[in-house]
Amino acid sequence: MTDRSLEPTMVGAPAYQGEYQGKSRDEASRKSAGLVAERLKRFSGGAGMWSAVPLGLLLLAGFFGPLLLVVLYSFMPRGSFSPIGWPTLENYRDIVEQNFYISFGWSLAMAVVATILLLLIAYPLAVTMVRLAGKRADIYTILIAAPLFVAENIRLQGWSLFFDKAGLLDGASESLFGAGTGSLVGNVPIVVFGLVYVYLPFMLFPLILGLTNVAPDAREAASDLGATRFQIFRDIELPLASPGILIGTLLCFVLALGAVSEAKFLGKGVVIPVVQDIDSAFTFGQNWPRGSALSVLLILIAAAAIVVVMRRVDIDRMFTRR
Amino acid sequence: MPKSLAGMRGSITRRSLLKTSAAGAAALAMPMIGGRSAYASEGSAYAMELWEKTKADLAAMGDFRKDLNIHAWEGYTEEPVLDPFASQVGATVNPQMLISDPAAVNNLRSGGTSTWDVINLNNAWQRKELYPEGLITPLDKEKFKPLYAMNTPGFQWPYLWAMDQGGNELLGMIQRFGPSGIGVNTDKISRETVEKGGYMEIIEGAKGQYGILDYENWVIMHTCMAAGFSPFRKHTEAEMESYRELIFKLFANAKKVSDDQAALARDMITGEIVAVIPGSVYSVSAARFEGETQIESVMPEDGIEETKTAETPKGKSGITWIEVTSLVKNPAPTPLAEAFLVYCHTPEAAYRVAAKAPGTLNPIVQMGSPDVLSQFTEDELEAIQWGEDGQWLETLLGRCIDFDINPDYAAMHDLYTEAKRSRG
């Protein structure tokens, strides 16, 4: 076990530790900035940099280009099919004046609930798989990852047919017990179920990655020193696995925030997530500026979540396990 | 008619006589929709000859772009229709199915003209938006006009929605069409009840028991019809208020909202819901083809006031759509685009467009030709609510106004989305 594994970490850490960490981060940032500056200095005169410029620009344009277009469109008047024109705030005003808070609210609420449920379900599963570590873990990994090779819509349609009236569940219970379940689709809990089902691998695999940071020796040492199982979980396992937990949480929250198929296939219109509004604005609504403004707001919400989480994650440490 | 085609007409007449007699009695006793013009067989023979000539011309043409990009509704994007074309002309066909008419129109507006060669949309878009905006190219009128001889009497030359607003240019070929009203499980609510009670029989009478087929512009159009006025003109404040009230009620009272017509048809079959608004032959035909003939598209008898005339004293309550397939004004066009339109008129291809699309069967205007009509099985005709000699379909169509552009669509769509969100 390295010393780093016993460093105070963010989850459950007292305030002075946070301050300590803040200082560490500042120092690390300064060091990193110095390194970057030094490398840039060496790099700037070399042929390597000039060779990398076209690809770098292409990647930048590919990443920021679409975002810039969406932002520009969001300030265009209704009926615009070009991002260049006299800017207006009417799209944002319309969003505030109309009842879009309902779809934003449902998207946020369902994303939060689904992410919490995913954490509760995936964590014990991840612990089991890490501890199994070997052939059986591989089998479980394949079983969990396999559905990803089937289109999400098809899987959700399958669940819809399973839960719907005269579906597999209804038919089977009718046949076995003489009373069917009726339709179990068309409600909010089934939409959340769909989110949990679809995004389980996106929570599970980062958790597994995070939990591999927890050396068995650390648990054993804590146990030898008299720590209870709960204390080991709270003070050793959770802090060390926290980068994986945070990455998984972030991934699932952002993905669930942008989900629409679950509400369509399983919700049957019981609630409208904001992405459905965006889709509607771009297609049937013929209102690209409105769709863009909604997209910008959704991106801002997701970006805020990313900023909050990424301030707490040391990606470098997570992937290099230093 | 160009000289190259003039010689064909003589042989067409001789062939048509033979084909007419071979088509059998089924083709002889047809009224309006099921009926045919005096030149129906002549039209299909012309289509065959034109297709042969087109293939020969392409073979002799030498160098041209061999890939064809089609943006269309599902009738034109599937293998049964595309594979024979591709193999006969040696083309690579890249189809993309539409998700909505407005989305496709926007696609062309935002540069899609460089991508697509053929665009297939419901009527009115070509005539009122695409052609005036320079996004499509007119067809060769002389070449395509004789094909109208295949059509049923209601779709004869010159057909309004295929022509430009000046009536001079032919903007596309017409083929699939259908009436849209209310989808009903007639085992749960009788056809007569819905015909007499109209949309409110479902919206209020079957509160919590019906679904909404969420093709957004169609929901808006049918809500206008249910509110008692045409969607296809400017609306007064009072009408907008009526629309607002009704669309909120429509969504509040619905049990399910889905853009999956098959799922909603299944819900009607299982009794989960009793009806669907809107419900067209398009959306119920697949279920009917599977033997679920209790699922019907029903058109209320009493229509909106402004459509009541001496000829139609009860007015019209539903909406007819007809697809128009056009040549996109692609800066690098391929002759395959026009060839594809010709090919779609050949009797076998026309039948496949009608009956072999995934999840839906639809009538086509070329059913006026015995060579086309004779290919439909009884089950397929039952699926499209053809009825005795086409009478059932004719009755439904008689209660419909034609699809058109809604000038208040933007405001109505805002209210539509508000109503939909308010369910949650």
Short description:
Chain A is mostly helical. Chain A is 74% helix and 0% strand. Chain A has a domain at 97-320: MetI-like fold.
Describe the structure.
The complex is a heterodimer of chains A (322) and B (424). Chain A is mainly alpha-helical and 322 residues long. Chain A has a domain at 97-320: MetI-like (MetI-like fold, Orthogonal Bundle), CATH 1.10.3720. Chain A contains 14 helices and no strands. In chain A, helix 8 (188-211) packs across helix 10 and helix 12 packs antiparallel against helix 13. The N and C termini of chain A lie close together (11 Å). Chain B is of the alpha/beta class and 424 residues long. Chain B folds into two domains: 3-176 and 323-376, Periplasmic binding protein-like II (D-Maltodextrin-Binding Protein, domain 2, 3-Layer(aba) Sandwich), CATH 3.40.190.10; 178-317 and 404-421, Periplasmic binding protein-like II (D-Maltodextrin-Binding Protein, domain 2, 3-Layer(aba) Sandwich), CATH 3.40.190.10. Chain B is built from 17 helices and eleven strands. In chain B, strands 1, 2, 3, 4, 5, 6, 7, 8, 9, 10 and 11 form an eleven-stranded mixed sheet that branches. Chain B is globular. Chain B starts with a helix and ends with a helix. The relative contact order of chain B is 0.19. Residues 1-31 of chain B have low confidence and may be disordered. Chain A binds chain B through residues 78-79, 81, 94, 98-100, 102-103, 106, 160, 164-166, 183, 186, 264-265, 268-272, 277, 280-288, and chain B through 99-100, 102-103, 105-106, 109-110, 212, 214-217, 254-260, 263, 266-267, 270-272, 409-410, 413-414, 417-418, 420-424.
Radius of gyration of chain B: 21 Å
The residue fraction in helices of chain B comes out at 40-55%
Structural class by secondary-structure content of chain B: alpha/beta
Query: Could you name the CATH topology of the largest domain in chain B?
Result: D-Maltodextrin-Binding Protein, domain 2
Radius of gyration of chain A (CA) equals 24 Å
Biggest β-sheet description of chain B:
11 strands, mixed
Largest interface in this structure: A-B, 33 and 37 residues
Low-confidence stretches of chain A: 1-23
Q: Tell me the CATH topology of the domain at 97-320 in chain A.
A: MetI-like fold
Q: Please state the structural category of chain A.
A: mainly alpha
Please indicate the count of domains of chain B: 2
Shape of chain A: flat
* SS strand fraction of chain B: 5-15%
State the oligomer. Answer: heterodimer
Low-pLDDT segments of chain B: 1-31
**End-to-end C-alpha gap of chain A:** 11 Å
Overall CATH class of the domain at 97-320 in chain A:
Mainly Alpha
Strand content of chain A: under 5%
* Assigned CATH superfamily of the domain at 97-320 in chain A: MetI-like
- Overall residue-averaged pLDDT value of chain B: 90
